[in-house]
Specification:
Helix content is 34%, strand content 26%. It is an alpha+beta fold. The longest helix has 21 residues. It is elongated, with a radius of gyration of 23 Å.
Length: 398
């Protein structure tokens, strides 16, 4: 199958690709809390049904905001390649981010980079393969999931633990915003909310209270030595930008206390966000934090720990069949060999790599603008990525 024919089909669909991405950006799938999920999934399902691509919707009840995933297949046979993406986005800086703007070859809006342009990549890879009319020797498995931005418990992890995903023989590709690199590894994540309990009192009788804020300062300060030790640890894997090779521990990304300036606060909390390199151990990292927190507990400070996120690091060799097929396709389209790098954050390739399924992230977005107030994706990068994914699928399954 000629690269020129694949490229022509994709370029002829340019306007449809951009309008479909704009439609997706306009659906405000903010997570947390998980808004507009049904609307987004229905839109995706309508496109797949219109193109006669088999799929189903999986529903997960969840209080006020239920979760929905789409699972589908294209083609037949035992050999299978999984294309995987998420449709939830982080909260906006302003409501205007849900009003997509196309300007000078860029599409602006929340999720344009992370990762609704990735969903477009998967959708139009499927449509390109269909319009090519080739008979594959295997099949494409695909999944669109929620809750990636908050750990994936009711998205990907739910599907895997209940064995709802079809078996995957070859590997998985995920079009995350990788800024031109291929991520074949990811950092792990541990995120905790640390709540300190005190006793309220009127400011005039402050001595009868127990100031949770002051205790919170003491607890947070006790973690600073561990933070310094953590930051000395470096991965040997390639990672961008410079400095991202270090392990990290963010103390106080979010914090709050009290109700009024003239009342002793009875409750205060702060967060700890620990990012773990693949050479480290998740359980050991957790125990290091808990050991530090046990010291102020022994002094009588009341501490509660809530786990907000827990994700393992992962790694897979670039030399697998899928990794090399992706590399050759990128070289065909972009004219240069991609770097295989460590994702500087947590990534859902971990769910597959750690279960023996080679998984790689490569997508049209830019990590450096994702989650920001001026998030955008370049139109050319979307078209190129659809071509790369289509050629990779053909290399593996045709």
């Amino acid at each position: 199958m000629s690269k020129e024919k694949v490229s022509r089909i994709i370029r002829d669909k340019r306007e449809q690709i951009i309008s479909t991405l704009s439609d997706l950006i306009a659906v405000p799938t903010e997570n947390p809390p998980g808004k507009s999920y049904r609307e987004c999934v229905d839109y995706l399902s309508e496109r797949l049904s219109e193109w006669r691509i088999d799929h189903r919707i999986v529903s997960v009840p969840n209080e006020d905001f239920p979760r929905f995933s789409i699972i589908g297949t294209y083609g037949e046979g035992e050999e299978s390649l999984h294309l995987h993406g998420h449709y939830d986005v982080v909260p906006v800086h302003s409501p205007e981010q849900f009003q997509p703007l196309v300007q000078k070859g860029r599409i602006f809006g929340r999720g344009s980079s992370d990762m609704k342009s990735g969903l477009i990549t998967i959708l139009f890879t499927l449509l390109t393969l269909k319009e090519l009319g080739v008979e594959l020797k295997g099949r494409i498995v695909f999944s669109f999931v929620p809750d990636e931005e908050t750990g994936g418990r009711l998205g990907t992890l739910y599907l895997i633990e209940r064995e709802l995903l079809p078996p995957v023989r070859l590997g998985m590709l995920m079009p995350e915003p990788t800024s031109g690199a291929v991520w074949n590894a990811n950092k792990g994540a541990l995120t905790f909310q640390i709540t300190i309990r005190g006793k309220t009192a009127h400011v005039g009788l402050a001595g009868e209270g127990m100031n949770a804020f002051e205790h919170m300062i003491e607890v947070a300060h006790s973690l600073r030595k561990l933070k310094r030790d953590v930051q000395k640890r470096k991965t040997k894997l390639r990672v961008s930008p410079p400095g991202a090779e270090r392990s990290t521990m963010l103390i106080g990304g979010e914090s709050r206390s009290g109700y009024s300036f003239n009342v002793v606060p009875e409750r205060a909390f702060f967060t700890i966000d620990r990012r773990i390199n693949p050479e480290e151990n998740l359980e050991k990292a957790r125990n290091e934090i808990f050991q530090v927190l046990n010291q102020p507990r022994k002094k009588g400070i009341q501490i509660e720990i809530d786990v907000l996120q827990e994700g393992e690091s992962s790694f897979v060799s670039p030399e697998t069949e899928v990794g090399q097929a992706l590399k050759k396709s990128i070289m065909d389209v972009k004219g240069e060999e991609p770097a295989f790098e460590l994702c500087p954050g947590v990534c859902e390739i971990r769910f597959f790599n750690n279960r023996g399924i080679p998984a790689y992230a490569y997508g049209p977005g830019l990590l450096e603008v994702s989650h920001g107030p001026d998030e955008y994706v370049r139109e050319k990068d979307i078209l190129d990525c659809i071509e790369i994914f289509s050629l990779t699928a053909l290399r593996l399954l045709y």
